[in-house]
Structure formats: structure tokens, C-alpha cells
Design goal:
This is NAD(P)H-quinone oxidoreductase. Residues 10-335 form the Enoyl reductase (ER) domain. GO terms for molecular function: NADPH binding; oxidoreductase activity, acting on NAD(P)H. This protein has helices at 41-48, 121-131, 163-174, 186-195, 208-215, 233-239, 261-267, 281-294, 296-300, 317-326, and strands at 2-6, 15-19, 29-38, 64-72, 84-88, 97-101, 105-107, 154-158, 178-183, 199-202, 221-226, 240-248, 270-273, 308-313, 332-336. By secondary structure, it is of the alpha/beta class. The chain has 2 domains: 2-122 and 278-336, Quinone Oxidoreductase, Chain A, domain 1 (Alpha-Beta Complex); 146-273, Rossmann fold. Strands 3, 4, 5, 6, 7, 14 and 15 form a 7-stranded mixed sheet that branches. Strands 10-9-8-11-12-13 form a 6-stranded parallel sheet, with helices on both faces. Strands 1-2 form a two-stranded antiparallel sheet. Helix 2 crosses helix 8.
Length: 342
């Protein structure tokens, strides 16, 4: 098969479409003939040499894919060869084939094309596990977030026009929350409004803390989904409502910040930070099962939709990375395999 390989850490030009060995599904795995993959910011970090795949994962970039089941590993049930599926991956999506643990595979939702389904696994799993999931058991409680957004609460989403952001807006509105977003420029904010965002903040021109206070009569956000990290830490705390919950899922603004514990204590707030890629298989399977139970019906009803900015041939992954780096996109950028079945 062919896959996008990273010849050395560097810019988009190091992404090369080349011949590599075919993957073989091991016990408990599903082999997928890939139709499409989606570009995530983690892929850019991996290309630059800052985010290695977990041990045992495919060395090729790509944290999600869609396609058709090609083969089943020993002990796999519930799937059949030829079935259209999408999957959450630890790597390997930028390829013609990928092998993935069966617990991370999802059916393509009714009403969604096989290619567009590649835009769903990473965004839905990230958003649902960070701001909605609750409960858990003694052995799996760390799968579940403390954010637990509730109806009528206010959610602030940083990067509202991103793949994660566009999904977070739709899911939050579906559960009856009020949604505030930050995004760069009126065009992106307009797209966020189309998806249901109630409070629109241009981070280039406005102070999101002040704008959020105005829009909430001084209360602030009950939950904040943050992709920035250190740069926004202090302002996020100031933007939190009493009993607010801050979920950090990205570090675009740095890894080290000063946390005002007095402010956090006074607000009776909570700060969590999670990543999805390196979680144990059992935790990923629990998240994917929850997404299938709670999110897939919303997609099949048309309440929530994948937001796809553009589709490029997989050999042109470098152009897709440049698009993501420029910020000139709303939603997901997809890569379609040359021979992928639609």
C-alpha cells in the first residue's frame, strides 16, 4: 500500500506519499480500506517532531479515518467485511489501509457519506469525553470528565471555527446549553453563529473575559473548552463562573502558566487537562461506545453534522497541513485516498 511518511522533522514538504508494507490486523483488530482521513493539529506536531505516536502505534500521521472493513482479526465480532465504518486511531490514517482496535471502530452514520465520516471520530470523541461524559466505575472513572455541561449552562469554546469547535457548538446546543465562542474575524464568527453559537467574540479585537461578562450579566462561563493552554490560563480563570470547570485540551499558547489558586478557590472551580491519543485501549473503547450511544443518534437525526472545509487528495497532505497552519479553514480538512471507495 501507499501512505504519507515523514522523512524527517520539518515543514509540510517532508510529507511524502510512498510505498510501505501493508498492515496486518492482530487479535481484536479491524483492518480498514481507507476512504478518507482528517487533518488534526496533532498531525502537524508529529510532522515537526514534537508529538511521537504512542508505543506500538502506526508511525504515519492521521488520528481518524473512514472506509470499509477489509478483514477481521482473531476474536473480532460485530463487524463484517465490506461494512462502511469510521475509526478513532492512534496513528496511520494517512494511508490506504490501517489496522485499528475493534473498540475504536464506529459505523458510518446514516445520512453521512463515507468520506465525510472521516471528520467525525476525533472531534466527537474529544468533545464528548471532555465536556459531557459523567459517571464511570472504580476502574474507568478517569475516562470521564468533571465538566459535565448541563442544559441552560454557558459553554465557552476557544477556536469555535476549528474541527473541535464546530462540533462542540453543535453538541452543546443539542443538550440545551448556551454557547460562546472565540474565533478570528467576522467570517469565522458568522459560521459559528450558523451552527448555533449565541455569543460571538473576535479574539483579535475583543477581550473575551470582558465580552463574556457583558453577555452573561457578570456570571461568566460554567464550562470552558480550551485549546490554547498557558497563554489563556489566567484569563480563563477570570472568565469562569462560580463552580465553573475549565477543560484544557490543547497547548497552542504554551505549556507553562501561573495558576491563581486563590481565584480558583474563591470560585470553587476545577481545572482538568486531558489528551485522547495516549489513553489506554479500554478508555478509548469506553469513549467510543459513549459517542456511539449519545452522539450518533444526533448525527443520524440531522441535529449534528460534520463540518468539512475542503477535501484534498491524500498525496497532497502537505497542502492540507499548510491550510491548517494558516488558519484559513472552518471545520475539518479531509484527505481522500486515491483508490478509496466512496
Amino acid at each position: 500500500m501507499k501512505a504519507i511518511t515523514i522523512t524527517e522533522p520539518g515543514g509540510p514538504e517532508v510529507l511524502t506519499w510512498t510505498e510501505v508494507p501493508d498492515p496486518v490486523p492482530g487479535p481484536g483488530e479491524v483492518l480498514i480500506d481507507v476512504t478518507a482521513s482528517a487533518v488534526n493539529r496533532a498531525d502537524l506536531l508529529q510532522r515537526q517532531g514534537f508529538y511521537d505516536p504512542p508505543p506500538g502505534a502506526s508511525p504515519y500521521p492521521g488520528l481518524e479515518c473512514s472506509g470499509h472493513v477489509a478483514a477481521l482479526g482473531e476474536g473480532v465480532t460485530g463487524w463484517k467485511v465490506g461494512q462502511p465504518v469510521c475509526a478513532l486511531l492512534s496513528g496511520g490514517g494517512y494511508a490506504e489501509k490501517v489496522s485499528v482496535p475493534a473498540g475504536q471502530v464506529l459505523p458510518v452514520p446514516d445520512g453521512v457519506s463515507v468520506a465525510d465520516a472521516a471528520a467525525l471520530p476525533e472531534a466527537t470523541a474529544t468533545v464528548w469525553s471532555n465536556i459531557f461524559m459523567g459517571g464511570g466505575t472504580a476502574t474507568s472513572s478517569n475516562v470521564f470528565t468533571v465538566a459535565r455541561l448541563r442544559p441552560a449552562e454557558t459553554l465557552l469554546v476557544h477556536g469555535g471555527a476549528s474541527g473541535i469547535g464546530t462540533m462542540a457548538i453543535q453538541l452543546a446546543k443539542a443538550v440545551g446549553a448556551r454557547v460562546a465562542v472565540t474565533a478570528g474575524g467576522p467570517q469565522k464568527l458568522a459560521r459559528c453563529a450558523e451552527l448555533g453559537a449565541d455569543i460571538l467574540i473576535d479574539y483579535r479585537e475583543q477581550d473575551f473575559v470582558e465580552e463574556l461578562r457583558k453577555a452573561t450579566d457578570g456570571a461568566g462561563a460554567d464550562v470552558i473548552l480550551d485549546i490554547i493552554g498557558a497563554k489563556y490560563l489566567d484569563r480563563n480563570l477570570r472568565a469562569l463562573a462560580a463552580n465553573g470547570r475549565l477543560a484544557v485540551i490543547g497547548l497552542q499558547g504554551g505549556v507553562k502558566g501561573e495558576l491563581n489558586l486563590g481565584m480558583l478557590l474563591g470560585k470553587r472551580g476545577a481545572v482538568t487537562a486531558t489528551s485522547l491519543r495516549g489513553r489506554p485501549l479500554q478508555e478509548k473503547a469506553a469513549i467510543v461506545a459513549a459517542v456511539r450511544e449519545h452522539v450518533w443518534p444526533l448525527i443520524e437525526a440531522g441535529t449534528v453534522k460534520p463540518v468539512v472545509d475542503r477535501v484534498l487528495p491524500m498525496p497532497e497532505a502537505a497542502a492540507a497541513h499548510r491550510t491548517l497552519e494558516s488558519g484559513a479553514h472552518v471545520g475539518k480538512v479531509l484527505l481522500v485516498a486515491p483508490a478509496g471507495r466512496r
